[in-house]
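Hey, resending since the last one bounced:
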Amino acid sequence: AERAYPAVTQALDWKPRTRTEIVVYSEFDGANGFATPLPFSYIGVFLAPPDEGELLDNSAWLDLLLVHEFTHAVHLDKVKGAPRVLQSIFGTQPAYIPNLFMPSWGIEGLAVLAESDPAAGRGRLRGPVFEAWLRAERERGFISLRALNAAGRRQPVGKQSLYGANYMDHLRRTYGPQAVGTLVEDYSGNLVPRLHTAPVRATGLTMDVQWE
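The structure tokens again:
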């Protein structure tokens, strides 16, 4: 976790304002974890390693998991402007955590981007499972932004990560490494969710136009 700290905080230009607690669970068989800002910032780690699927990778599973979940912790802690003022008055209330209201594909996509190092073959973004899945999506026809935002029952949860990670990677490759940071920075000051115009400062385009 300490190894993950400098890379993640530098990428998001934010250091958590409190210690991030880590809770270790040994009673679950699934390879997973979670992060939450409530009631305080903490990460849950399920110790079971993956034995199949997209999470099989040539990097250490625990390192991958901690980078991913700590990215969530830092991302959800980041706040500026009016929401930060309101947090200082009323405490860490859900209504004043702007990035909590980013679509789930944005939250997951950012964390998958952070865990991935394509040059080293690390993480899911350039992994064979994600690449094959993306090719299959292209053959079927990519789903609409409206469908992705709805996150309906017909969608596997993993599609949030697949589409979100490739969108964030598109931002980085097309508009430069600062574009993802600009998107997160702008969203961190929202009093109300603002997806449609969120990428304008980073890309010059509204979200629907850019998605197409």
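The beta strands are 21-25, 33-36, 42-46.

Sorry for the duplicate.
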